[in-house]
Amino acid sequence: MKFTSKRMQREADCVALMINRYCKDHHKAQSPPCEQCEELLHYALQRLHHCPFQEQKSTCGKCPVHCYKPDMQNKIRKIMRYAGPRMVFTNPIMSLHHLIDGLKKTPERQ
Ligand SMILES: [Zn+2]
User: How far is ligand 1, taken at its centre, from the CA of residue 72, in Å?
Assistant: First the structure.
């Protein structure tokens, strides 16, 4: 799935990376993502694609709109909690971007 804005593309790359990382460590997938994680990744990208805020959005963890289905939200939360802190070492630039993006306030929805 392609995103038109740099910001959204970055967000997409970020979530893909985290899912792969989690999958490699937890599901011992030879070439992550495994089938189950692939499904979650696809879902995450779809949510991003339909995000009403697009470039204006804060990071998903801080978003007031919980657009994930509850079971998908549980899965992604677990993955972020695991992979997030590790990203600081493996992908410091991306983590920094994420930190900066997270300072942005999500606009009020009209
Ligand atoms: Zn997996």
Answer: 14
